[in-house]
Each structure stands twice: as structure tokens, then as C-alpha cells.
Write a structure and sequence with these properties.
Helix content: over 70%
Structural class: mainly alpha
Shape: globular
Distance between the termini: 23 Å
Strand content: under 5%
Number of strands: 0
Number of domains: 1
């Protein structure tokens, strides 16, 4: 995978700022702590009702679908994103049981990018953990050398 760029870092920082928006922060907190539906039908009847919870549900799921699309389409360096967070995985765990019903009801691609992002993120973690267990440190593919070491290597060339 290519090296993250300054633009990747700027986008990641911008997404972090978006996450800090008080309303989105409350929505994410609610989604991860209070939102405990038994299935898609309950979500439709109880939460998708033009209430505050409806707004929080839509804010949280659409935020992660948007971020996933940026990562999956290459607009944001995947490993840079994966190194930074795990909230996507935790949030997906809250969704995965009812998403098949939602897809049957709404559209087959509902939260598809989000699911794909989490799958890639989990694979990245598995590779990183395996490399760490084998070498006692993350593999070179999953970590960058310190800036001083890169400068020293470049000076030798």
C-alpha cells in the first residue's frame, strides 16, 4: 500500500473534527450505549419516527457509511484510518444483526461500504497482531519508520 499523504492526514483530522460536533458526539454515544433494538422492525417502528433518536440513528449510520466510502474508494489512506480508531468496529457490531433485514426492506446496498470497511479493518488488525507476535513489533507494512531514520536512510543514498 502506498504511503499516506499530507492530504490523507488533513482528511483524517477533518473527520475527527466532525466527530467532535456535539450533536454527532451525542448520537454516537446514544448508539453505543442506549440503542439496543431487537431487530429491524423495532428500529422502523420505534426509532425511525422523526424523533431525536431517529436523528441520532441516521447521523451515526450515515457518518460511518460516509467515512467507509472515503476509505474504500481510496480518498483516505486505509491503514492510516485503521491505525487511528476502532469505533467503526464497535459500531458495526451494534448493526450487523439487523442489517440483513434492513437491506431486504430498503435496498441491498444499505450500509455496504460500512460493512466492507469493518471487514478490511479486522483483516488489518489480524495481520498487524500476527506480525507483532512473530516479530515483537508491527510489520514494516503496517508501520512507518521514525522520520529521523528515513532522513538518515535518504542521506546515505
Amino acid at each position: 500500500m502506498s504511503k499516506p499523504t499530507h492530504a490523507d492526514a488533513e482528511l483524517l483530522l477533518h473527520l475527527y473534527e466532525v466527530r467532535r460536533d456535539p450533536e454527532l458526539r451525542r448520537a454516537r454515544q446514544w448508539f453505543l450505549t442506549e440503542f439496543k433494538p431487537t431487530g429491524w422492525q423495532e428500529i422502523k417502528s420505534r426509532y425511525l419516527s422523526h424523533s431525536e433518536e431517529d436523528r441520532w440513528f441516521r447521523m451515526t449510520t450515515s457518518y460511518w457509511e460516509m467515512v467507509a466510502t472515503l476509505v474504500n474508494r481510496g480518498a483516505l489512506h486505509a491503514e492510516l484510518f485503521f491505525d487511528h480508531t476502532g469505533e467503526d468496529i464497535v459500531t458495526w457490531e451494534r448493526c450487523k444483526s439487523w442489517v440483513p433485514e434492513a437491506r431486504a426492506d430498503i435496498r441491498p446496498t444499505y450500509l455496504y461500504q460500512f460493512e466492507r470497511l469493518v471487514s478490511e479493518h479486522q483483516a488489518f488488525r489480524k495481520r498487524t497482531i500476527a506480525a507483532f507476535q512473530k516479530n515483537g513489533k508491527p510489520s514494516e507494512a503496517n508501520s512507518q519508520k521514525p522520520r529521523a531514520s528515513r532522513r538518515a536512510a535518504a542521506a546515505k543514498r
